[in-house]
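Before relying on records like the one below, remember that each one covers exactly one chain. Contacts with other chains, cofactors or solvent are not represented anywhere in the record.
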Amino acid sequence: MACRLRCGSRCVRISQLEGRRVALWGWGREGRAAYSAIRGRLPELALTVLCSPDETAEVAALQDLRLAVETEASAGVLARHEVVIKSPGISPLQPAALQAARSGTTFVGGTSIWFDEHAGSDGVVPHSICVTGTKGKSTTTALLAHLLRAGAPRTPQRATKG
């Protein structure tokens, strides 16, 4: 599957980030997971973390010389990056994000990157179910895992509870 890096594209693989200006918007569980995944594959890539002032000490403790920290996610800051990997709680419909997107910045979620990394040539991730939404994800995931285990005892369950 040929993936093109463009504004609005859902298909972004870690290998496509090489040599690009990339920011991680949010330093929660998914932001930290995106950082680890990118660092594991592209250790020399310069990254910027857009986080709250309370989170800057945690980011600084990584002692990553290729990691910059910004505490303001203005349109100008966002537009300086070609790709912004945003955490789930951050809306891409904020005025600053919309303005940066019009300038050519691509916004993508970490979950999307995971699926793009694991998809086959047809774009499908075999044997995977993704549960999204606002309420009931943990309950739905647990129920699905229970039902699937009735027919396939080796059914793993992954969740970001909390």
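The longest strand covers residues 22-25.
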